[in-house]
Automatic annotation (TrEMBL):
It comes from the Bacteria. This is WYL domain-containing protein. It comes from Weissella sagaensis.
Length: 337
């Protein structure tokens, strides 16, 4: 063999060996991510896998999991650590792709992560059919931000009209449990907003000039449902089942519309009920909120979630007629036929 050919063959072998080495390193990381019983090790591996790519040139791996799949695989591991079992992961035979589903939900819904490619990094947990982004997750900065608008759109406006609160609740519980686990185990910064269950929590609101009769409309709906809306200082309150109390009130704030900064509060004495739970369990409150949120709605992190035109008060025509509340009770089989 000539010297030139020897050098060329040696170079070829080295290039193949380097690529094989990178593949073997990836395989070791994946095996450990899937089997490690140390949550901190899983978190570190998830960080590494979601921020790297196997772009080998000489040894090509045609079927690979994407960065979005690594997020879902890590999500599955953390839910496993948190003892959540109400979901399943689909793995099609013809390709490497992970999709999360809820077997108990009698509505078609599939969830994947959508990698965010701007400077914020991270990924969005997205329902594929509606493209609703339910939360944002950054492994690097240890942040989770839930999206109140998307959660309301999907779970209340979409699913609640078609199925029961009991079938929807596993989704909400999974989201909350994941946030609590990551907060406690890794000291994550978590914005629960609509999912928060603490009794003393005042839900932050995004608000426009409030339409006249907002509380009056809730009063009418509450009367029809055998719950009585009572006046409280600067607002109104409702006592629901099992001692759950809902309060809607404002505090004086010169920087807010009409100098009134509105808040919602949910109290049950056990820090167990969220505003989302109320929307799912009480049709008249859910119907009322779906209308009024054009003007007054639970706020999510504005730097992470863009306002959607359909719910952004700034995009609504001032002359647009007021939408009438729609009852959220699921339709019967005969009505759906």
């Amino acid at each position: 063999m000539t010297k030139h050919l020897q050098q060329r063959v040696n170079s070829y072998v080295n290039l193949l060996a380097n690529d094989i080495g990178r593949i073997q390193e990836l395989l070791a990381q994946v095996n450990e991510l899937a089997s490690a019983d140390n949550p901190k090790k899983v978190h570190l591996l998830a960080q590494q896998l979601t921020t790297s790519s196997l772009d080998t040139e000489w040894v090509v791996v045609p079927r690979q999991y994407s960065q979005a799949d690594w997020y879902l695989l890590a999500f599955d591991r953390f839910l496993q650590f948190a003892k959540v079992t109400t979901y399943d992961i689909l793995t099609p035979a013809e390709r490497e792709e992970l999709t999360l589903v809820f077997p108990g939900l009698d509505e078609p819904a599939t969830f994947e992560f959508e990698v965010n490619h701007d400077d914020n990094g991270g990924a969005y947990f997205t329902e594929l059919g509606t493209q609703k982004r339910l939360f944002y997750w950054s492994l690097t900065r240890r942040q989770i931000y839930f999206n109140a608008d998307a959660i309301t759109d999907l779970l209340v406006e979409n699913f609640r009209k078609k199925t029961t609160a009991a079938r929807i609740r596993p989704i909400a519980n999974l989201l909350t449990t994941f946030g609590r686990y990551m907060e406690q185990e890794f000291d994550y910064q978590v914005d629960y907003n609509i999912l928060e269950t603490q009794d003393d929590f005042l839900y932050p609101m995004k608000q426009k000039e409030l339409p006249a009769g907002m509380l009056d409309r809730l009063f009418v709906l509450s009367a029809d449902s055998n719950y009585f809306l009572q006046a409280i200082p600067n607002g109104a309150g409702l006592v629901l089942d099992r001692g759950v109390e809902v309060r809607l009130f404002y505090v004086n704030d010169a920087t807010a519309s009409n100098a009134q900064r509105w808040h919602f509060q949910v109290m049950d004495g056990q820090d167990a009920i969220s505003w989302l739970d109320v929307l799912l369990d009480y049709d008249f409150i859910g119907a009322w909120y779906l209308v009024e949120r054009r003007y007054l709605a639970i706020e999510s992190e504005p730097l992470v979630f863009e306002k959607t035109a359909v719910n952004d008060p700034e995009t609504n025509d001032a002359n647009e007629p007021v939408i009438k509340p729609e009852v959220l009770i699921p339709k019967s089989v005969e009505e759906l036929a």
